# Entry
Amino acid sequence: MMGQTAGPTILGVDVIWVATLLSGVAAFAVLLAIYAIMTVHDPMAKRVKALNDRREQLKAGITASTKRRAKLVQRNDTADRMRTMLSSLKVLQDSQVKAAQIKLLQAGIRSKDWAVAVIFGRLVLPIVFGGLMLYLVYGTSMFADYSPLKRYGIVAISFLLSYKAPDFYLKNKIQKRSDAIRKGLPDALDLLVICAEAGLTVDAAFHRVARELGRAYPELGDEFTLTAIELGFLTERRQAFENLAMRVSLDAVKGVVTTMIQTEKYGTPLASALRVLSAEFRNERMMRAEEKAARLPAIMTVPLILFILPVLFVVILGPAACSISDAFKH
# Structure
């Protein structure tokens, strides 16, 4: 019986097997790209629906009857089950729910039911993933070669990462959303100045700016539209500005909100104050860009040493080394 001929190998790895695996990954990536292209959805439709829901909630809170208010409150059975389970375990606190709701708002997630899901994830994920890692480390021989300290470290890190996973996810979304809002804030303030000088009211100016910048900066347009809606429905206009500062985790937005509140309270000129803030934000954005440019040489040092300099040495010294080697052979 003849044995099968082994294929070519590189560093002990079968080249044909690796090529087959990479071909499968490439085919999957192509199919995924085609699916993503064929199923492109307009993100504005979802935002418009969320804003209309918020408008209906504010309208119901002012003009609707008690029965209509109850109808507008949508019940989520899954969230109710999680809330009941957490309440029975005495781990659901109002302060935790409120803090989770603020983080969800800053991440752009409007549903309050997800706050219970975040707290539920902190409870369940360590049990699932941490328990699985505990079984793999101490119940199987997968990590038998590791020292007791390393095995304990793996289990402890798995429990910690599982507990912090919802917070890491929310923090990442908040950071991305805050950066997107920061980029469009100077332009939004310039448009607010133009609208204020044209004689528009504050809520009409916010509506106009949101409509003009909604395509270029959808996150900022979403927040400005929601603020304009709350300005039109809330009895306290100050509360609408404070909600904007709560929903956006940026000191710049808090400065704008403070300016708007002072303008509403003391009657100071809005256009001049916003013009000063816009200039400050543009200077801050330029300084941030210059800071990144100044850090670039230090960041490029490691790739330069690891990838560029060895290639240069091979190209420059390679012919000389070959010539010296041939000379010694002869």
Summary: The first strand starts at residue 9 and ends at 10.
